[in-house]
Write a sequence for this structure.
């Protein structure tokens, strides 16, 4: 499949991967990140009443290039063990801000011309690792809620939701072979 993204044409294809979780990302500046994926810790201020956090500032940080007129802010609550994967966008950029609970985030580069085509990234983000995750078009993404508590995800997109822009791949796709089981390391 081909699609135009920001005036460039990208070809998307489901890669054939070995079974596993791909490259584990432990730092925002990891050299193993899929091309175009960016991570930035978000500000969090705890006190004796709870905490305050900034999900994002429009015009700054990872969402600096998101247009004010079409940026959408959404949220999802998922119960422990829930897997929501995989989907991708042809044009839309996402910025995920997991603010409660813990997520096992899985990314797969579907862009045939990308230097990281077929690379999978796994990161654990949420209450214990407060990261914003920028996901460019053509990178399939999904998550599993890990731990015993529900998890809450705030996400910003650089354009309003358009179902024609979204594609889906099964969480257990036999080509991607992402291993959603606990790793028991």
């Amino acid at each position: 499949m081909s699609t135009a993204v920001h005036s460039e044409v990208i070809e998307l294809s489901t890669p054939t991967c070995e079974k596993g979780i791909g490259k584990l990302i432990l730092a925002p500046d990891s050299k193993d990140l899929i091309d175009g994926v960016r991570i930035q810790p978000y500000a969090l201020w705890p006190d004796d009443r709870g905490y305050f956090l900034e999900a994002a500032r429009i015009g700054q940080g990872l969402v600096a290039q998101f247009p004010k007129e079409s940026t959408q802010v959404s949220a999802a609550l998922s119960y422990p063990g829930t897997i929501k994967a995989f989907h991708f966008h042809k044009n839309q950029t996402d910025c995920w801000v997991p603010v409660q609970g813990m997520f096992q985030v899985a990314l797969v580069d579907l862009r045939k011309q990308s230097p990281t085509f077929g690379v999978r990234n796994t990161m654990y983000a949420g209450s214990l690792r407060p990261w914003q995750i920028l996901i460019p078009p053509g990178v399939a993404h999904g998550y599993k809620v890990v731990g015993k508590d529900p998890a809450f995800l705030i996400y910003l997109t650089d354009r309003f939701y358009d179902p024609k822009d979204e594609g889906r791949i099964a969480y257990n796709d036999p080509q991607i072979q992402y291993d959603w089981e606990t790793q028991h390391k």
